[in-house]
Amino acid sequence: MGVPFSVQPADIDESVRSDEQPMGYARRMAVGKATHVASQLSPGHHVLGVDTIVVLDQLILGKPVDREDGLRMLSLLADSTHQVITALCLASGELVQELQSVSEVTFAPIDDTTRECYWDTGEGADKAGCYAIQGYGATFVSHIRGSHSGIMGLPIYETEQLLKQAGIHTWIHRSTAAESDCHTQK
Q1: Which listed residue (11, 13, 51, 126) is catalytic?
Q2: Interval 68-101: pLDDT, tens
Q3: Are strands 141-145 and 59-61 parallel, antiparallel or unpaired?
Q4: What global pTM score does this model have?
Q5: Integer Cα distance of 63 and 66 in angstroms
Q6: In this structure, are residues 104 and 83 in contact, taking their beta carbons and an 8 Å threshold?
Q7: How crowded is residue 115: how many other Cβ atoms within 10 Å of its Cβ?
Q8: Residues spanned by the domain of 64
Q9: DSSP code of residue 139
Q10: Is there a catalytic annotation at residue 51?
Q11: Separation of first and last alpha carbons in the chain
């Protein structure tokens, strides 16, 4: 999008609260990350907080804690359809804006050997649901409905919408003349 940025981790408690619904959890995490980092910066900064979760039958699958947990998650996801919820929050001073992206991902069957080989790549060890659609994990996906970039963890369409609402110009690499041409061409 051409928007300069820097990355700053948010040190917040990411525990799921008892009886917390998946969408509420993802939203709370995105808002918590954005407002936590924004509170540490001088006024005028915009902070984008994002959280992505994998949900199967209302069960939130976070990042696996170890090999056994990762293999369990892959087993649960195999031959089924799950949701990937990515919540975004843009915080700047008192302004807090939110959007969500919800996609459905269907996995093909995955045998034990394939699950173990995938775990051994290390790719899913730090990913919600223990897979990365942008890597080897894509081989498990037979169908998606929704945002591919949202499944990866940053839904580009929704991100641009939040930035526009806040008056942040995307595609800033365009020159004034090129921008003028873009608006007049049919």
Answers
A1: 51
A2: 999 999 999 999 999 999 999 999 888 899 999 9
A3: unpaired
A4: 0.88
A5: 9
A6: yes
A7: 21
A8: 22-172
A9: G
A10: yes
A11: 22
